[in-house]
Amino acid sequence: MPQAYYRIHSTTAEGLNRIVEKEPELASEVLNALLSDLVGAKRLDEAFEMAKGMRAASIPLPFPAKKILRKHLRAQLVRVDSPRFRDLIGMDWDWLKGSGPVALFVDAVTGSHRRVRGWYTVGTFLPPAWTESQWARVRESRQARAVARHYIRWALPFDHEYKGALASWLWRIGWDLTADFQQAVKYGLKLREESGLSEAVHGILMSPTPPHDELLETLLGELEQADQRDDAAHESIRRRAKQKALNEFDADVWMEPSAECHGLWLALTAAVRERRRQQGYGWLLEQPRHEEFLGAWSLVLSERIPPHLSDDLHDDDKADEHRQWELRRAQERHAQLPQATAEELRAFYQSCMPDTVWALGNVLNAGRVVELVPQLLETLAIGESRHLNMCMDALGSLSETEGFSQHLLSSLEHASEHRRAAILFLVRRMDIDSHRNPHEAYHLHELLTQALDNPDIPALRACILMDETGRLSPDAANTLSGKCRSLLGEWSIDLETGLGRAALMLLAALGEDVTERAWAAFQAPDVDIRKAALRAFTWMKTPEARAALKKALGDEDYECRLLALRGLAPEADGAERQVILTLAQDESARVREACVDAIREGKWWEGLDVLCQLLADSRNARYGDADRNVDHHVAYAAAKALASFRPLPSSLFPSLLAFIRQGRAANLDIRVHGVILDLLAPLPVPELPRVLADLLRALALNPGEGSALRRALGKAPGLNPEVLLLRFGVLTALVMHFSLQPSARTHADAGLLRELSRQPQEEIAQMALLGLRILGEESPG
Q1: Which of 37, 110, 285, 358 is 20 to 30 Å from 623 by CA-CA measure?
Q2: What is the DSSP letter of 151?
Q3: Nearest-5° angle of CA 236, CA 238, CA 241?
Q4: Angle separating helix axes 178-191 and 196-205, nearest 10 degrees
Q5: Rounded CA gap, 581 and 553, in Å?
Q6: Are 325 and 119 in contact, with CB atoms under 8 Å apart?
Q7: pLDDT at position 709
Q8: Which residues are CB-neighbours of 3 under 8 A, at least 6 positions away?
Q9: How much of the chain, in percent, has pLDDT values that exceed 90?
Q10: CB neighbours of 518 closer than 8 A, spacing ≥ 6?
Q11: What is the pLDDT of residues 379-418, one digit of tens each?
Q12: Which of 646, 652, 570 minimizes the C-alpha distance to 612?
């Protein structure tokens, strides 16, 4: 065999591994001798790989060999101009440390975490404290320059995002790095998925002739193509995630943008950040495609807004030490940065309005943006009504700033009576506890209540009740006079406000003819408006209203289908029931569960087969892995619905027995099995004892992954706790069946019960003993 391909025979490797484990001192002698021979034969690459393994096994290396290998590694850092360089510079620092120019440079670009005191935040570059002599030695070293070239080209695109701090430090050394950063951007665009591309973007834009426009166009084009690929690959599954068709954990994962889009988005943000640092923000307003930069601009501005210590972080019982440290560290970093000016923030606000408020939200959520209080209050008072919620949420963190009360009062003077009522409606519906700054949100609530100084209008009170509960007050028909109903009609014109939507529903509940307005709302692209229309149709008893509800069963949004189902079900005729039953196959778990509720509440006997089918529904409402933190809410609802029907038709027994026979393969939620077992145990089902006995044996043979998990954790093998719960439930059902159905005892498997009575799990053993006593068998000694 050619020497280049010869390494070591597998039996020799196994022997060496055993020596390392059993005889570490002998292993040290043997391996050090082998290492020294390899170094002496100048087979340094092989020796280096062997040395890495020895270090991993905590075997000390002979100093002469270690010295030669260090020199070899540094020589490779200088020579290797390829992607392999990244593996070399990622070696343990002990191999690279030293006082020479190469070691100084490597420590500078890779050692921020070694220089920090306390916790290190990933993405923070802390420059080394070099002396003038060290700066000069590195600057004049050809070897250090070569390593820098290789690092920028091959390692930087894989590095973290440092927001230009690392790139700026590299330029400070005094080398011309233009070509290196050009190569890094080219390589980073090829990789796409790595955060380091953004640092390379900073680097190339710090060159003497930065290609701002060219790079922005390139990044926009690449990002547009990446978005198209991402949409093509994930559009369907993301739509299903929004429709509550996926498990909660899976939905969160799929809603994240692809790694490719994320990397390119960071790069675009870096390009905006660097150009803004050099040229200010005016160029953003002049860009023909400036709306495509608003998201990146918002993130750059957010970095310049000091974070606000929310109420819970002042309470040591609610905030851990590390979280407080992170926030204070962020405040310290922001104090060292030039803050965003009021002029730029206001220009950004105007650029985002009225159609890009999501970008504005990035800035408003970053901290207290006091500079935008006048703009927010103006929008609240006279702006488009669709932005009221955004304004209320943002102002909830600003209500205690200086001069806020005066600004509020002067702004509300320009608000119409309709707008004042819409604001007061939102005030009364504020969820203060869930606000990120509850104390300040409560203060805003009090200020607005006092400022609006509106008497308790019956129409407003009724709208709030309708929005909260979906019901009329008992005296609504009498208290809501013609004047009130006229006011409700005016409010219902503007369906972009919560008040307008509640007014539409209230008018329908009062029996007013709002068919035309509701039909118009039903055609709206906004889901909240369509939902208001469907709630109004639910109150109406006309054929037109039921026709709209039937049509909405096919709405693209699951919440609309849900409302339509609930609106139709209580008074559904036979044909409508059949249509509703088909929604048991709806992709949205919430709709399937509503179908179950309709069957249970209406006692639809024709829906029992549907309930049996839904016992296998595996949609998990809890956040976690598919087989842990289990809450198969649709299946559980179906099981409870089946249990509500009395007497249960015997025609369902085969389906239910088939479900039990499969054990956890039928459904991982043990609660579902528990309901079905409790349902069948008291009933005269001849096949039940045999099915339960077979399942008990199967569970004993296949205890589940708990055993493997415990072994992986270095613990004694044990049963999966879910399997143990199922075994106990099955055994309990078997014993209950013997107790309530004496005829079933004739063919009982007493041997199985005797075997179970000797189980180490006390609850199982005790239940098996109870079963033996019911059968009249003697307990085993």
Answers
A1: 358
A2: I
A3: 115
A4: 150
A5: 11
A6: yes
A7: 42
A8: none
A9: 64
A10: 504, 508, 533, 536, 537, 540, 545, 548
A11: 999 999 999 999 999 998 899 888 999 999 999 999 999 9
A12: 652
Residue 83: exposure state from Cβ atoms within 10 A (0-12, 13-18, ≥19): middle
Q: Position of tokens 């080394």?
A: 128
What is the per-residue pLDDT across 44-67, written as a single tens digit (0 to 9) for each?
566 666 666 666 566 666 666 667
- CA–CA dist 408, 428 (Å, integer): 18
SS3 content of the chain, % helix, strand, coil (to 5): 70, 0, 30
Instruction: Pick left, alpha or beta for residue 761 (phi over 0 → left; psi -120 to 50 → alpha; otherwise beta).
Output: beta
Enter the tokens of residue 66. Answer: 């270690």
How far, in Å, CA of 720 to CA of 711, rounded? 12
**Can you tell me the mean pLDDT for 622-639?**
81
Q: What is the pTM assigned to this prediction?
A: 0.81
Which residue, 190, 128, 208, 127, is CA-closest to 154?
190
Coil vs helix vs strand at 758: coil
The pLDDT-based confidence of 206 (bands split at 50, 70, 90) is very high
Report the alpha-carbon distance of residue 613 to residue 621 in Å, rounded. 19
User: SS3 for 644?
Assistant: coil
- CA 715 – CA 124 distance, rounded (Å): 40
The whole-angstrom separation of Cα 659 and Cα 609 is 13
User: Is 657 exposed, middle or buried (CB count within 10 Å of its CB: 0-12, 13-18, 19+)?
Assistant: middle
User: Do 420 and 412 touch, CB atoms closer than 8 A?
Assistant: yes
User: Which one-letter DSSP state was computed for residue 154?
Assistant: I
The stretch 116-136 carries a mean pLDDT of: 88
DSSP string, 1-55: --GGG----HHHHHHHHHHHHH-HHHHHHHHHHHHHHHHHTT-HHHHHHHHHHHH
d(CA 428, CA 597): 31
Give dist(CA 191, CA 391) in Å, integer: 40
For residue 134, which amino acid is it? Q
Kindly report the number of other CB atoms within 10 A of residue 570's CB atom: 10
Contact between residue 168 and residue 198 where contact means Cβ atoms under 8 Å apart: no
Residue with tokens 């055994």: 731
Which amino acid, residue 664? R
| pLDDT given for residue 357 in this prediction | 93
Are 779 and 744 in contact, with CB atoms under 8 Å apart? no
User: 696: part of which helix (H) or strand (E)?
Assistant: helix 688-701
Residue environment code for 101-130, b if the CB has 16+ CB neighbours within 10 A, otherwise e: bbbbbbbbbbebeeeeeeeeeeebbbebee
